[in-house]
Description:
The protein is an alpha+beta fold. The chain is built from nine helices and five strands. Helix content is 46%, strand content 16%. The model has no long low-confidence stretch (mean pLDDT 94). It is globular. A five-stranded mixed sheet has the order 1-5-2-4-3, with helices on one face. Helix 4 runs antiparallel to helix 5.
Amino acid sequence: xxxxxxxxxxxxxxxxxxxxxxxxxxxxxxxxxxxxxxxxxxxxxxxxxxxxxxxxxxxxxxxxxxxxxxxxxxxxxxxxxxxxxxxxxxxxxxxxxxxxxxxxxxxxxxxxxxxxxxxxxxxxxxxxxxxxxxxxxxxxxxxxxxxxxxxxxxxxxxxxxxxxxxxxxxxxxxxxxxxxxxxxxxxxxxxxxxxxxxxxxxxxxxxxxxxxxxxxxxxxxxxxxxxxxxxxxxxxxxxx
Length: 240
């Protein structure tokens, strides 16, 4: 643990982003006073490993102390620099990321199979997982809810979505990105995030442009390629 800390928690592996009204000369002096005595480390060369392709669905069942079954889905997902990332973000917004999304309406509101659903696409520099989670009502089986998920994804893959739903999903994403810039701290977070991942410092505006450019056909393509069962791992939690 100490070796890991000394290697990675060093001034030559830090991004410091400061936004607001300040005196630059005074601020730089404070930074030098706070960090100047810290020694730099010898950073290992990053070894980026490409995972082998996943060709079949993987499943695992866990027996835990829970009142009802739960489902966690992990689909192979692209890195944030991949053009598919923006498309998958819009698709996730349509499917599961908000109370008005298709799976929330189907599973929680209409069929009352679940008490909650969520989805998350990590903004990572390397490929990761697009995650979905479903908290089922007591007595509801995971298989029943999973069939609803597959049907909604298959609907997008075959038919796409209407223009109104597409624009709503894109508008929610854009509003979230713009809202994140309302405060000085929010601006610093976005600049620091971009610098940490080696992205352009105006990356947030590029994300807005990429979101606006997503078309219905793009969603069909990504749903067909990335959200198919052979590309996912399914973890089911059942009451002990």
